[in-house]
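Reference record:
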Amino acid sequence: MEHSVENVSPIQRKITVTVPAADVTAAIDKAVRRFGADLSLPGFRKGKVPAKVLEKRFGDEIRARATDELVNDAITEILDREKLHPMSRVQLEGEVTPVARDTDLSFTFGFEVLSDDIKLPEDLSALKVEVESAEVSPAELEEITGRVLRSMARLEDVTEARLPGDGDVVLVDIDGVYEGKPVEGMKAENYMMQLHAPKEGEKMSELDTLIRTLHAGEEGEAPMVCPDIFPVEDLRGKTITLKCKLHKISREVLPELDDELAKKAGFPDAEALRKAISDQASNNKIRTVRSAAQQKMLEKLLDSQDFPLPESLVNVYLNEYLAASRNDMVRRGMDQKAIAGALEGLKEEAMVEARMQAKAQAFLMALGQREGIQVSSMDVDRQIYQMAQESRQDFRKLRETLWQNGMAGDIQGRILAAKALDLMYGKAKKTTLGADGKPLTELKPEGSSEGDKAAE
């Protein structure tokens, strides 16, 4: 078999293949034998139909099978021999002519790869990263405890005449009007939401502000400037009238953290529940601190370089971003036309985010390939099983679907990137920071722990 590799661009490869006539004929003979192994025809015993009869009656199907097998085997062999790692699906160029005896088979295929311009750190142990302290503060423990208690809270209607405030749960009707006409996609009836104080540096929304001026049973309206991502493109930047009716105000009634509550939650007593909450807070903090340090280290390595990205990888993240946005809009009750307009307005923002994520994955995958990190089928199955659990789907059906549509390859890439990040972080020198942001201690690279395990 002969082949040639053409670098169409820094991230595109095109390979032309010629399979000699002798191999083609051998593949047809093999396909004939396999086809006839379990076949019965009148006048012949099972598996004993002569090859000439088979080829005469089922020639097109036999040649199609032989063609597919030759093409797939050739692609696999060439990718392995050239040590090429496609980032996109392998695409055949044009139709492949079905094989014929004593005739060469020629075809061309192409795909995207990672750029050779990615600059990887030569010595991972020379990397340095600052890590925040993983000690859980009393305020953080209290916040986690509060979340647990709120998950078991009950709602109680507010009967006194007062305005809504932080933490209240309100039931409202919402609508929007522009120049006397209803604004498409804004109408929502019996919508339940909880009021929260705005985060530092953020403004309270017009809807929150309006709701806080109403008593239960009252209606009100206020002007609202439509943001740049407003679903109705013609209204972006314009001022509409926001209308709201407040049906009722409810307050959360938190349970006491006592033995009774602990037993409801599956713990023997309150002390065991408190310990479980403390352990959860500690584990959460360790994961958060580690993730933040890894991200900081990765951003530093990426800030100083630029390289072409496989569009197939960018499109994966772009489609995920838009799909998540669409699902959020559906949950908020927006109609399809309004959703389509909003997604169109989000495309530029989505593309920026997608390219950032694709750049990080491309860098880490290149590192993983250089370091010889392997991703097993078991690794992929574990990830698919987790996806099935979260989405309440049948694992086997989901697994089959993902492998058939090529998405399992995306999962492999992300696992490889995650292992590469763990390896890099494990080998880096870490400096722990105190609450004042000053270094406390310098930790040795993790070396043979998580980093080396990831490479196994």
